[in-house]
Amino acid sequence: MSDRLTVLKTYKLYVGGKFPRSESGRVYEVTDSKQNWLANAPLSSRKDARDAVVAARKAFGGWSGATAYNRGQVLYRVAEMLEGRRDQYVREVAGAEGLSKSKAGDQVDAAIDRWVWYAGWTDKIAQVVGGGNPVAGPFFNLSSPEPTGVVAVLAPQKSSFLGLVSVVAPVIATGNTAVVIASEKSPLPALSLGEVLATSDLPGGVVNILSGRTAEIATPLASHQDVNAIDLAGADEELAKELEIAAADNLKRVLRPQSVDNWSAAPGTDRMTAFLETKTVWHPTGSLGASGSAY
Amino acid sequence: MAPVFDYAPAPESRSVVDLAPSYGLFIDGEFTEAADGKVFKTVSPSTEEVLSEVAEAGEADVDRAVKAARKAFEKWSALPGSERAKYLFRIARIIQERSRELAVLETLDNGKPIKETRDADLPLVAAHFFYYAGWADKLDHAGYGADPRPLGVAGQVIPWNFPLLMLAWKIAPALATGNTVVLKPAETTPLSALFFADICRQAGLPKGVVNILTGDGRAGAALIAHPDVHKVAFTGSTAVGKQIARTVAGTRKKVTLELGGKGANIVFDDAPIDQAVEGIVNGIFFNQGQVCCAGSRLLVQESIHDELLNSLKRRLTTLRLGDPLDKNTDIGAINSAEQLARITALADQGEAEGAERWSPACELPENGYWFAPTLFTNVTQAHTVARDEIFGPVLSVLTFRTPDEAVAKANNTPYGLSAGIWTEKGSRILAVANKLRAGVIWSNTFNKFDPTSPFGGYKESGYGREGGRHGLEAYLDV
Fold first, then answer.
1. Contact A161, A191 (CB under 8 A)
2. A121 interface with B at CB cutoff 8 Å
3. Do residue A119 and residue B134 have CB atoms under 8 angstroms apart?
4. What is the total count of domains within chain B?
């Protein structure tokens, strides 16, 4: 056994449900915490970013139009698929973050449970943040949340997998589609996630995963006119400010970077509500006269 | 009208269900005999064939089951919600995997068409568990304050019309919120609950969290009266519901009751007739009309009465009554001889009181319990068929002239579970809906159910809601 030469994986991007290389043909070296070479990851270009936005926009109608129940089933399926490939992710997370097997295992378990958490939210968020409004007049009036559209997500730089899942799952749970920039230094778990998403009944283009220099990819996304929102979790202070300024051009919804020490902590609803619109529908109720029911 | 085509039989295979000759009670994770060794038979209502023999729980068994549930409660309620969620997700997935088996089983034991168990009951059962699974770790967000607590042991008694679906409505929210359960399925439909017990085992659910007691009304009464039961949930008749309300008086038991109904299905003159006819048929003939929220009173605006009735009668001649396992069957068997006798007596009374009775030409199978789809016209509000819940495929047709009159007639019942409104005018839908005293109003549709949508009645149709965020309250100490 030990004489056998292992087969290395070629890490590729995940865009529109397919696994392309960077159109630029570029790669960069990914190393572990001790500077040992792990793999060559695609070094995405601005063209890759724009292609990913096209894919995400194309997927938005179908995904946002799917029933919340259906989206929940798909997200739960992601958890099922991850559970089956747990060992692979433990290995990749341990390598990427310099963690012991057991600590990396905790991260992967928490990431799997996080998909389950958001799978349960798909058909409940509307009941928590929406509702009827008792307007002073003969009108039916109902406010419901709707996904904002295509969201650019800068995944956290340190927590390569749990952090990544924690920012991607809430975006798509509510029906948005995402263009995700993996952790610059540790992109491999993110790129592998694409393989699970591709086999979890998630329609192609709902999540698109790019690796490379965060600033290089994020800049065209922040100024892209067909991107509706941006999560700056993986941006440092300086980059976050630049991107927020660029994002103002078409009034993207911006979720500023928050200092998160521990991605294992129970998430609330903030990461979902950040990328939701509220739509309020009015309709006259007519009148049957003022008399109340006698019964 | 002679049918243009004859349908060849298209029976669903029974081989997917493996029935044992006998089943025990499911207590503390094990199947056991009743303490006094009593058993009873369960039959297929479409053939009267004995399907299996099940244990008949007595008071001693009720006590044992409640003790098991009480013991399991400490650990189950202390589990992190996220872990409880994963058990429920497992159950939902196993139900999805085994749904064809369960659909055939339900059709055998209940008599309803496979088309319904396969396409309505089972998908809803799985969805209900999936939905409440997701709530288990989100109770802080449900609007009942931080960290709402469960009540304890839930004693649940369910009817025979949707055996597995009513089980799901009861068990899923109870477990999600951290309660443990003793559930008694109806005497005539015990089997799917026992198969569900097996699913709990496959899911690795801790022992004692779910206990299933088969038996008759006495077991149900003992369960509800048990001092260590802190939550009572009942779906069934209004008469039994009132008895339960008396039983729990003076205790601290929290109660939800989902009882009878006499739903009004109101059709205005601008309604699309063909869609309305489909909705009327669905409203009263779905599950042979054995539905608490059935649209059993049709209120038609006078000006379209004849046109609508002609269309409705024409449609009824195309309904196919027969073998419930046949995939083309629309109308299956009545669940029991007792229920058939009740429907027959009420229909006969309707005729005796002067209402006009009509049924399509319809051949009834020799064995089993069958009742042809039946319409009553020239019905007044004083007629028994307009007042009493028949719980069978019998529709009473009344007329109205103005929306106010429609509302007054619709509300003229002690029940208040469901109602339907058919009109192209949105503002009229909302105005009428505002005035109706019923818990579920369907507009231009009927008999729609979803785990996210609260269901329950006004007035003597019971209290409490099942389904949706609202359904959590019944199982929380809030």
1. no
2. yes
3. yes
4. 2
Contact list, B448 vs chain A (CB under 8 Å): none
Domain total in chain A: 1
CA torsion B462→B465→B466→B471, rounded to 10°?
Answer: -150
Same domain, B192 and B322: no
Same domain, B62 and B202: yes
- Looking at the DSSP assignment, which residues form a beta bridge with residue B395? B375
Cβ-count burial of A192 within 10 angstroms (0-12 exposed, 13-18 middle, 19+ buried)? buried
> For the domain that residue B216 is a member of, what is the CATH number?
3.40.605.10
Q: What is the pLDDT of residue A292?
A: 42
**For residue B354, what are its two tokens?**
């002067």
Find the range with the poorest average confidence among A6-15, A39-48, A100-109, A255-264: A255-264
Establish if A1 belongs to a structural domain: no
Q: Are A286 and B430 inside 8 Å of each other by CB? A: yes
Q: The domain that contains B425 carries what CATH number? A: 3.40.309.10
Q: Nearest Cβ partner of A72 from B134, B435, B468?
A: B134
Alpha carbons A10 and A230: distance in angstroms, whole number: 29
Query: Residues of chain B whose C-beta is under 8 A from some C-beta in A?
Result: 82, 85-86, 89, 127, 130-131, 133-138, 141-143, 403-404, 407-408, 411-412, 425-428, 430-432, 434-435, 437, 451-452, 459, 468-469
- How many angstroms separate the first and last alpha carbons of chain A? 82
Q: Which structural domain range is residue B470 located in? A: 14-259+462-475
* Residue B85 included in any domain: yes
Q: Half-sphere exposure of residue B439, counting CA atoms within 13 Å on the CB side?
A: 29
- What is the spatial distance between Cα A156 and Cα A260, in angstroms, rounded to a whole number? 9
Read off the CATH number of the domain in which A166 is found: 3.40.605.10
Complex ipTM: 0.95
B258 is catalytic: yes
Among A residues 260-279, those touching chain B with beta carbons less than 8 Å apart: 268-269
Residue at token pair 């202070």: A237
pLDDT grade, residue B7 (50/70/90)? confident
* pTM for the full predicted model: 0.97
Question: Could you tell me if B161 and B290 are in contact, meaning their C-beta atoms sit under 8 angstroms apart?
Answer: yes
CB A170 within 8 A of CB A267: yes
Q: Which of A113, A285, A289 sits opposite B430 (nearest CB)?
A: A285
Written as one letter, the residue type at B116 is E
Reported confidence tier of residue B107, pLDDT bands at 50, 70, 90: very high
Chain B residues within 8 A of A268 when measuring between CB atoms: 141
Predicted confidence (pLDDT) per residue in A201-242, tens digit: 999 999 999 999 999 999 999 999 999 999 999 999 999 999
To the query of whether residue B293 is one of the catalytic residues in this protein, the response is no
* Contact call for B426 and A283, based on CB within 8 A: yes
DSSP element (H, E) containing B102: helix B99-110
B268 and B208 both lie in a single domain: no
Give me the amino acid identity at B247. Answer: T
C-alpha span between A290 and A292 (Å, rounded):
6
Partners of A285 on chain B (C-beta within 8 Å) are 427, 430-431, 434
Q: Tell me which chain A residue has its CA closest to the CA of residue B132.
A: A120
How many C-beta neighbours within 10 Å does residue B122 have?
A: 25
- Dihedral (CA of B174, B176, B182, B183) sign: positive
Q: Where are the beta strands (DSSP E) in B185-341?
A: 210-212, 231-235, 254-258, 264-267, 297-301
